[in-house]
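Need the bound structure for fe (iii) ion, inputs here:
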Amino acid sequence: MIKLLLRTRGPILTLREPHHSPKRREALGNLNVMFGGFVGVDTDSGKVIYVSQHAPEKSLVNGRCVDLDAGSRVIMPGFVDCHNHLLWAGSRAHEFYARCKGLTYHEIAEGGGGIAYTRKKTLDATEEELLETGRRHLRFLVDHGVTTVEAKSGYALTRDGELRTLRAFARLQSEFAGTIVPTYLGGHLIPPEYAERREEYIEEVVQALPGIRQEKLAEFCDVFVDPIALTREEGKKILLAAKENGFLLKLHADEFGDDGTSAMGVEIGATSVDHVAGIGAESIGKLANSPTVAVLLPATMFFTQTALDAPARDLIDAGAAVALATDLNPGSSLVFDPCFVMTLAGLRLGMACDEAISAHIKNAAFAVGRGYTKGSLAPGMDADIVILDTGDYRELGYYIGADNIDTVIARGRFLKRDGRLAESLAGEAVLG
Ligand code: NIG
Ligand code: FE
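Answer from helper R.:
Posting the output first, comments after.
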């Protein structure tokens, strides 16, 4: 039964496709907009059960249904942030301002800063401190319309420390109406104490995999292949072991230049290859029409002042499934706002607003293995819904810094309503 009925005279961005699949080529720019209509939610199951231009028959509507009239404002699915580091301790503001004076991200890392700095702080933090940071970050994300967020470990880089982070994700999920997709990123960096015995560290990461799966602490396994982190072969070793243990795979690939990492990702069946700013023609050819999603992270290039951008147009034209995400992390992208990512996708990647919306919602859902339940408004999908404070969805990337997200619903519960965040991350129930 419909217990929450949303209506608008304005656009409903359904992002529906005839078949469950990521949007490619021209389809990326087609949001399947319905002008004026109704979205019915069964708040017990947290599912959308009705989407139509016509009002539902009385027999479908619960007697105590809450009727939410959005006037002529936009109704759309919640954002999916499919590449996000969510939780760490300490601040790297000093590195940010050092970069403002000209130091590069890699120079800072080579000088002992970067991921290794955050690692020290994270290992020193208490569990409660980590959880508080996670809650704070989730509130920022929800405020910007995010209802599903991927969460990578990778700032502890010890077996126990990584487990502690992954358990914190599980705890946060138990408090949160939205969805957290946990990823084990033991291969984020070779810890300094292993510099002379890298293989031992890789082996340690591999050894941790079965326990993490048994405890169901992570769905994905990710690696950072880069001159400051892992080699392609080291990354591949971890991922092949992860695959055997039932993990889905992700890679930080070809971020600053093409070293064949995305091509390797496609070959081993990765769900996504992320960054790909330096990807070349041959690897683009491999991604084209493959099920592997290319996750573009323009905020990282902006935040690190890197004069390199993912070849979004070439990827889209070739038929690759392109997604967008924030890459929220303390060093290379302290960005919480999908709308700002859309701004950069327009200005730096040449993507149209409609394409950026599909990429940050529908294709992003596929990048976290949720394409069948999230990313569009259709009967049977999770009721993860955003109402804007405007009737023109193009304002999303154009009004930089505005709070244009009026209402956020996750699995049928209000996380934000009339511009105000709910008291708790569990959201407010819809009461008729
Ligand atoms: O996605 N690339 C690897 N990890 C992050 C950076 C992490 C950090 O600097 O703390 C990224 O860019
Ligand atoms: Fe990242």
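Comments: The chain has two domains: 2-78+373-421, 79-367. Residues 127-143 form the longest helix (17 residues).
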